[in-house]
């Protein structure tokens, strides 16, 4: 019962890729779907400009780190407390940049009442409202 939004945003907090999932699925299962969805939304030149990926602890998994390493992307994902992987110092900037994603969710939940709570029974309709809200965010920034 419920829906999770998995979003990739640019440095301005504007969405690039949005994927929905059931609330009882783990976050890490949709990471690759979000990353693959970016290639559908952006052209090759803009994809080449992507240097690093920031995510929260829910996306801490070995296969995600390997996926990013194979694509030559720097990964800044905090390790869970029970993680057996070695922790590095690349997480220093995590809290300074995480606000960009949180700002997107604040714009989505506070600025667009229809998306704050999922009233639609059909997931495609809800995703449609999310896409409309994202389009309006782009229009506000471009003004």
Automatic annotation (TrEMBL):
Top class in the EC scheme: transferase
Region forming the signal peptide: none
One of the record's GO molecular function terms: DNA binding
EC number(s) given by UniProt: 2.1.2.9
Pfam families: DDE_Tnp_1
Top-level division of the source organism's lineage: Archaea
Keywords, in A-Z order: Transferase
InterPro entries: Transposase_11
Transferase in keyword set: yes
Domain called Transposase IS4-like: residue spans: 2-134
Transmembrane segments: none
GO terms for biological process, alphabetical: DNA transposition
Name the record gives this protein: Methionyl-tRNA formyltransferase protein
Species: Marine Group I thaumarchaeote SCGC AAA799-E16
